[in-house]
Amino acid sequence: MISSVSKRIGHALEARLLSPSVYVKKDFYRRTGRRLDLAHPTTFSEKIQYLKLYNRDPDLTNLVDKIEVKNFIRNEVGEKYTIPSAAIFSGVDEINLETLPRRCVLKATHGSGWNFFIKNKDQVDLREIREFFKKWLGKSYYMYSKEWAYNGVRPRIVCEQLLLDESGNVPDDYKVFCFNGRPKYVQVDHDRFTFHKRAFFDVKWRKQPFTIGYPFSEKQIVAPVCLDEMLHVSETIAGIAPFVRVDFLVHEERPFIGELTFYPGNGMEKFMPEKWDSDLGACLDVSEINA
Predict the structure, then answer these.
(1) Which of 56, 170, 234, 249 is deepest in the core (most CB within 10 A)?
(2) pTM for this model (two decimals)
(3) Which domain holds residue 149?
């Protein structure tokens, strides 16, 4: 127990005291067991580290903000691809269940994965929700991830309608990997809250023999009817960065963009088989970004 606490304290001190590049090198080795070559990045994982440190396009901050990104989506591809915001809160004391949809999801705008799902607001405790977001609103996602785009995002809470499938479950995610402006792979996540598995397809919907971060899915996954539309929308906005993942939810055969992801898995999720880390790295040109 003491050792675990000491490690967390040491990690926190490193995040605050070390330069971003030194911290990222240490964290990369700690989490992957590999030395990070920032001078000559070749793998996908290395290039994501390079981009999160050195691509300091100021527009990225609004593109990771879960409120502000909707304006970008609306302007670039249209209102119909956004999930409308039902409410926006600047602090936890503003959260009022009476003003929320019966079924919704609350998201911290300045991080990734800081979400609270509500399938029936009559069955949740307001104090629990406030305590959940009190913790996250006080944290800097940038501090521990060093994902530059999150540096300076204003901490807020956005409420959106919770989109569910016909079985009452959160639908599968379809995440389009775009390299230098071109969609190349689609990641599909299913059973995210039970036995989370993942599959990858190319743009012709041919299943690929690899996965990242989660077990390989043997499930036969049919291409969504709106696949071509998702690919077109992704290509329309993909020029905003050397790499972007456009994350869709499909509800009643309509695609909605949940968010834009520039550093999937913080660039440290395990490729299985490992060779695909190099194969995806070869697809990504970061030469226009100067260290």
Answers:
(1) 234
(2) 0.94
(3) 84-162
